[in-house]
Amino acid sequence: MLDEIHKRQHVVKQNRPKRSTEGDAFSLFAITALRLAGRLTAAGDELAKPAGQTSARWQVLAGARSGTHSVAQIARLLGIARQGVQRLADTLAADRLISYVDNPQHQRAKLVKLTDEGETRLAAIEMAQAEWADRLGQSFTSAELEAARTVMTRLIETLDAQTGKA
Predict the structure, then answer these.
(1) How far apart are the C-alpha atoms of 86 and 149, rounded to whole Å?
(2) Do the beta carbons of residue 46 and residue 54 sit within 8 Å?
(3) Which of 70, 62, 73 is nearest to 121 (CA)?
(4) Rounded to two decimals, what is the model's pTM?
(5) Strand pairing of 106-114 and 69-70?
(6) How far is CA 50 from CA 44, 47, 56, 63, 127, in A?
(7) Backbone angles phi, psi at 164, to 5 degrees
(8) What does each of the 166 residues of the chain score in pLDDT, given as a tens digit?
(9) Most CB atoms closer than 10 Å: which of 6, 17, 121, 154?
(10) Three-state SS annotation for the chain
């Protein structure tokens, strides 16, 4: 049995595509970013939980803060599917944390606006997030964090340009 597994692993290794040094580095970066995204989502869920929210609902509440974005615009800002944001927005509206208001730019695409209760919940989450960010931020210099943000922003822009979302 072990011999059979070893043969299969050899075939898998043979069929693995060759990448450049930069391709290998990027692949490791991408895997690390995905691992980080999972941990940030879990942390966001914990931060939002006392306000009865999740990190996904928190993102939509934050997108609704200005009252000048439609569901589609919030989805684009977050880089996620409009349908997912629409489901979250509908749930938040049912919970009376956001409301839909007329959009002077588009008759059918309503704007998403925080209600007073939505503002209260968002403020509570943001207070907890500020303490959390300050605590974690102490582990890095501001220059390190700015360099990491710059790389991530450039990667987002590159991916958007490749997919025509720019």
Answers:
(1) 28
(2) no
(3) 62
(4) 0.81
(5) antiparallel
(6) 11, 7, 14, 20, 11
(7) 80, 15
(8) 666 666 665 655 667 788 999 999 999 999 999 999 999 999 999 999 999 999 999 999 999 998 899 999 999 999 899 999 999 999 999 999 999 999 988 888 899 999 999 999 999 999 999 999 999 999 999 999 999 999 999 999 999 899 887 6
(9) 121
(10) CHHHHHHHHHHHHHHCCCCCHHHHHHHHHHHHHHHHHHHHHHHHHHHHHHHCCCHHHHHHHHHHCCCCEEHHHHHHHHCCCHHHHHHHHHHHHHCCCEEEEEECCEEEEEEEEECHHHHHHHHHHHHHHHHHHHHHHCCCCHHHHHHHHHHHHHHHHHHHHHHCCC
Structure tokens at 114: 């925080």
- Token pair, residue 69, equals 């974005």
